[in-house]
Amino acid sequence: MKGPFAVHSSANLDRKSRSNAFTLIELLVVIAIVALLAALLLPALAKARGRAQGMACLNNNRQLALAWLLYADDHHGRLAYNLGGNTSRSTVAQRTNVNWVNNIITWELDSDNTNTLTITEASLGAYANRAIIIYRCPSDRVLSPVQRAAGWEARVRSYSMNAMVGNAGELSQAGYNLNNPGYVQFFSLSSIPQPARIFVFVDEHPDSINDGYFINRAYYQEWVDLPASYHNGAATFAFADGHSQLRRWAHPTTKRPAQPDAAGLPFYVPAAEAADFRWVIEHMSVDR
User: Would you say 240 and 200 are in contact if contact means Cβ atoms under 8 Å apart?
Assistant: First the structure.
């Protein structure tokens, strides 16, 4: 009998429920499709995120260069102090707020790693509007095990200044830099002959960075300080004319892992892999 009170047999109900349900094979196919889409999309999302962080890093470098130019304008063209150590990495910058930054970055629990006053009270702090965020690359969250165990999220600085730019204190008392005596030490903005060619700030490798003084010797084919390679094998630079750019490294020796104790500095650069090193040297200074 058919009608509003028709009785459906259990066999009919079972048949209908089975026809409306997914089979095991169909579920496996759906799961496989989802996994495939995830495999295709996740690398693209990671690359997009990496590009965004690279753009933010470029902007940080540009902002630092602007603060550096404002400082020079306010000091009759004289450049900010850039104190540092020697090329054996056995000495580092003296502690003073006269310097553009006043911290030594380490893998230990030293307060300099997180103390923002070492930036805001240093000579460029006021000219950067005391914006701590522009002193650290967003890709740089590298910490040592002891720092992670202490609950840290990141160290306070990722950038350093070209050692041949600014007053280097005792290292440049003679009018040239003792680390590179055959090259010009730029004490004033007007002394830089090609501002668009000489870099001021660099995104430095997390194991290389200590003081804010990025030094390499022009006469020896070895890295003393190493640029970073966070951005798909590239680092950001800011130049004396205020522009910033991304430099992609060509050789594996330049792209050491972003980990504690991974740089192994200083180290010799084979002749066949010297293009990255030579580029940095050529944009460091000019012959005296």
Answer: yes
Identity (one letter) of the amino acid at 7? V
Q: Which segments of 137-196 does DSSP mark as H helices, in order? A: 145-149
- Is 16 inside a domain boundary? no
Q: Return the SS3 of 66.
A: helix
For residue 103, the number of C-alpha atoms closer than 13 Å in the C-beta half-sphere is: 25
Give the pLDDT means over successive 10-residue stretches in the chain (288 positions).
51 53 72 71 61 86 97 97 88 93 97 97 97 96 97 98 96 94 97 97 97 95 96 96 96 96 95 97 97
Do 259 and 144 touch, CB atoms closer than 8 A? no
Domain around 65: 29-282
> Which residues share a beta bridge with 161?
201, 213
In whole angstroms, what separates CA 224 from the centre of its chain?
A: 17
**pTM for this structure?**
0.83
In angstroms, the CA 241 to CA 226 distance is 23
Q: Please give the tally of structural domains in the chain.
A: 1
Is position 233 within any domain? yes
Which amino acid, 20?
Answer: N
